[in-house]
Amino acid sequence: xxxLSMLKKGWDFLTNLVSRMMQASPTQVRANxxxxxxxxVDQFVAPGSTPGNVGICLSGGGSRALVAGMGxxxxxxxxxxxxxRDLISQARAxxxxxxxxxxxxxxxxxQAQTSDDQYLNGYVADPGRLVLTNTSGHSPAETLDxxxxxxxxxxxxxxxxxxxxLALQVLFLKKFWKVPTPYLWQTAIGLHILKPQGLYPHNxxxxxxxxxxxxxxxKQNQIVSLNPDLANATVSLVADGSNRSKRPFMICxxxxxxxxxxxxxxxxxxxxxxxxxxxxxGSVDGTDYANRSPGGGAVGSFAFSSSVAAANNPVTVxxxxxxxxxxxxxxxxxxxxxxxxxxxxxxxQNADKLHDDLMLAHPHLTRWIGRSFPAxxxxxxxxxxxxxxxxTGDRSKSMGVVRDKLMSIIDxxxxxxxxxxxxxxxxxxxxxxxxxxxxxxxxNLENTGLASLFSYEDIDRALAFVNASKAIFAxxxxxxxxxGQEIPGTRVLLDSQVPILFGYQPWQNGKxxxxxxxxxxxxxxxxxxxxxxxxxxxxxxxxxxxAATGNTSDPANMGMKDNATVSGVNVNPPLxxxxxxxxxxxxxxxxxxxxxTVLWYYLxxxxxxYDALQPDVRAVLGxxxxxxxxxxxxxFSTLSTHLKAQQINxxxxxxxxxxxxxxDVAKITSLFTDP
Length: 675
What we know:
By secondary structure, the chain is of the alpha/beta class. The chain has helices at residues 3-24, 62-78, 87-90, 99-108, 116-120, 154-157, 163-177, 184-194, 216-224, 325-332, 335-349, 351-372, 379-390, 395-405, 450-453, 536-548, 607-612, 615-621, 629-632, 645-660, 665-669; strands at 27-31, 33-34, 54-58, 93-97, 210-212, 234-236, 249-259, 266-273, 277-280, 297-300, 307-310, 315-319, 419-420, 437-441, 461-466, 473-474, 492-493, 575-582, 594-602. The longest helix is centred in the first third of the chain and has 22 residues, at 3-24. It is globular, with a radius of gyration of 25 Å.
């Protein structure tokens, strides 16, 4: 080893030692409280010209939601109005959930080394230009087997982003890097989604060493002026520049478990994370894990997860480290932590399965370790991988390695739920030792982002991208009104995230869509507080989406029985504009009933896109009329976290084309006009 390498290693050791010492002892910081009961975007940012006061919603759905959303933002960036501004730049806010946060949070905070076009890829106006592989005369954006450097889908395109490999990585992070269990999922997401974009600086323990704000003025006014010691801290700020789309105000949606007095059932409270504050603006039932009534507002995001040392505004809090983007994005997508827990349960019951999975994953894990960690941190983990390789052909020996290194910690990863030290802004009191409360995926409560978006009273219109795993189908029963009568023309099956916004329970076989109101034993009671739109408007939405795809016949005439479903003609993308009265909802902090307009986009295959493709590309997708062809494209399973380049590029081009083509662009631009 050279003297220079030895000096560098020594310097890294000293800086990480200082970091560990700082993290070990709680520090005090001051932060502003945001206690507004009537939220407005312009309380936080000067949004500039936003005709129509439009908010964009990007739903959850893992890698499917990331990729579909990438195409949708790509199209919005390509559509420009007469003044030369693209539609992202004219949006007032963007509300994101789970997989939608994987795409949008890095986009909002994109670093200088990555352009917007690299991150979203270029818009291809003619799907007939798409080619299967590198072909002369075709750009990288037209090449289906290529993912550009810096692209949002780089993480999902890597095989190490599959569920089993993610589960193994979590075990390695626990075993070799001693990451605490409540932060394991967030750490994995930080490494895959944020670190490639320079948004996850961390110490040797993988604790984030940065915080986030909005712009330089916000950092100065809300962080540095209150905490001069943080003047030199690494702070992620909103992307800006002449070649970038202007970033809208961002809401990242999470949820927090609530204890319900007298029951063992836990509800969820909606949690908003922004570049200004993180907290609960709604008024909810139940308590946090310290038996306090949650809500009342937010604290400066960097100071979230802490104990109150002085109950003022600005508040003084004690915390071991500042809250970071990794915490927010990982919590928003914590549904996948539950999926990993199921894999761990299988390994606990069958060590041979863990062994076999590890052997199959060996080359991918080795590459993941090599690119994720400095060389001087890899020794123990790489040593285990070397031992496994050396034991190839000797199962008893390699099983011994597995039992010695990994089976001993399987019991430590039974629950990967994120945990943070929450405290309510209302009835603020000093706490000497604030307990942690479990948090959950924002989509476990409300997966569209619409409820939190409309809590901001200067949002009048929404472009709602519902990137669901279920395509639109005709089904056997439709919507039943308050009198128990089925409404004609409503036998259309949508994902459960939609009906709950209208006060309807998810569709059930033999029952159809039934109201929550008046049902003493509803399905999915966790959604019973989600209504923000009139119940009678749900039937109109089903009819509108069904007709928008090109279906002219009543779905009831398609002969459906029991839980059977059949797809319609699906000629066009499901885009439907709906104007209705927004209802007050205290749970989500929606306090101003008003007329709003929603342009719904529902992820679905459509024939116009297929017909525009070259025959060899179309052949890859298979039979259009077979819903399960090409893994049910574009409605891939939520658990399919790893997607191949071809899947990614076909889906993102489908969603981009469905917005940017000449037949549909007017529907989009009509939102971005003043009344």
